[in-house]
Fold these 2 entries.
Entry 1:
Amino acid sequence: MCLITVDSLAVKYKDLCAVDNVSFNVYEQEIFGIVGPNGAGKTSTVECIEGLRRAYSGTVKVMGLDPWKERQKLYGLMGVQLQDTAYQDRVRVWELCDLFSSLYRDPAPYDELLEIMNLNDKKGAYVANLSGGQRQKLSIVLALIPNPRVVFLDELTTGLDPHARRQMWDLLLQLRERGLTIVLVSHYMDEVEAVCDRVAIMNRGRIISMGTINEVVNSFNLKTEISFSASLHDTGDIEGLTGVVSVARKRDVIKVSGHGDECVAAVLKYLNDNRIAYSNLAVKPPDLEAVFLSLTGYTLAEDGDSANGVGRG
């Protein structure tokens, strides 16, 4: 079942077209990722879906409702975790949850949500005393209090350590299994690869690729990177192997670039057949980061560079 339909959406700020003719659907009980650098149009797109921003043109429907004209009906059906959220330091966790619960007709029991997010022992704590990861988890609890069918999470794990990020990913998968539909806005490709069923890659206001992770990656003829350490004076024979495109060497580290499994198999066979001792073998297949780099010419790690875009994500 299709919960969200975006058709030819455009958002403009004076003379700047922040979102340019974007279309996609989000289906029930899926995690749909929207990725791209700052200025790509991610947040502007999602704000239109949430009813926080009026579209310049195009149409948006969420569960059959117009989010701009029917916000009151829709807010009882969706949860929102904004990119920038601040709470009063001297408010306790339970007080904040109680306040949010009072705003909705049929709120979810926040005690249960705190338990799911491993925050039950922090119910009486002041927000100021929560760690960064705990605050992020609290933001999800507050987004889920409306008992929504769909929840929007914007840059959920920014600033979290690797362990906390992976905990958050596990929680998202649990929520999806409980029947929730999730729209995840991120500039972290590893995050999207870990949790999303489908992904839309945005750049300069447009969707430049969309589909499952495998569909997006496999739609580009990208190269596998192989690296290993070996005492080889001449790499000419490797350059002629099946599937190999290029070979580079720096001291005793050799890096081979080629096409898929045939390249990996050919390199390993050559090393074994010629009894060449090697170590530190690493094989890096194409991923979403490589796709984005091939499409845009820069990595998502450069998201703070104003040359990559203007305005909000």
Note: The chain is about 30% helix and 30% strand.
Entry 2:
Amino acid sequence: MVKWFVFMSCVFVSCLAVLSSCGQVKFSGGSDPSQNPPVIPPVTPSGQPREVTFSTKVTPPNNMLDILLVIDDSNSMLPDNQKLAQKMATFVTELGASSIDWQMCVTVTRALTVENALTWGASVFWSEYSPAAGDGWILKPTANLSTVFSKTIDNIGAGWAGTDDERGIKAAWSHFSRSATNKCYRPDSAIAVIMISDEDERSVGGVKALEYYADESKLLEDEDKPESLIAQVKKVFGESKRFTFNSIIVKPEDSACMTEQDASGAKSHYGKSYSSMSTLTGGGIGSICAADFSTNLNLFKGIIQETMGSFPLECIPIDTVTTTIEPAFTTTQTIDGPKINFEPKIPAGRQLTLKYKCAK
């Protein structure tokens, strides 16, 4: 039986909450995509590279950040979740000190019973938290953050029925689908997911050869796949939404960490799906075996701040990116996966046009 209160609207939306981007997910401050839509010619029948043109007016970076904390509440995770809770207060306090306007919602990796129905991605109420205005599942800066995080994690607990089918990506997908009713995401904010788990999506990422327990492997559905979550972000929030997925996991091939986690008595697995999700969005990947999570969270904070000053690309470009800045401004550009960084940053008010080619 769930031991906390969960909020969810009775209205279900058929299509789709810690640190931003794949495709046209926007990392810099916002322009209006309806005024400057990217021109994306279709793939030619001969399979030639596709030319992409993106133009936007550079505006001051938006400092709003909405965080979704996704907690694996399976049997082995309580000590790790408590370790995360101990550092989260410092993490969000430092975000505030960096002039980032943050708020946070939390969900778990299993379906919760809400109004007699199993529901994925339902928001959990924060414990010891009484907002002056608004809803108790949307955490904003408050004086007792340490108590809020520790009490909430304790109330979430671990080892409940159904927790052996961990679906962090699906939980985020479903949480985004209810954005109109959970009110966890503001129109002009960036979104950062912070995911913690010592297993993969559906335990073994849908790979039967990796199962340890009998019938542990379950097929991945579309909502469990990284590319589906990225598509959901674009569908629900628009092409220009800045988005990162940040993972605290057993890193792929880190056998020493896996052995350490297994010593708790429950078998762990490499978080390959979550690692892929972080890589695709430019998010951070931290080790669940870290002595504490300060380094992991500092990594995420740095990525959030960095991505607020960079621009997304629809792909890792072929050859070079042709950049035009009007009025002219001298800067150096570097390509970092599916995004482009400028140093020094382009001042607000300039018109930026990017032209490049994608393989498909």
Note: Residues 1-35, 39-44 have pLDDT under 50 and may be disordered.
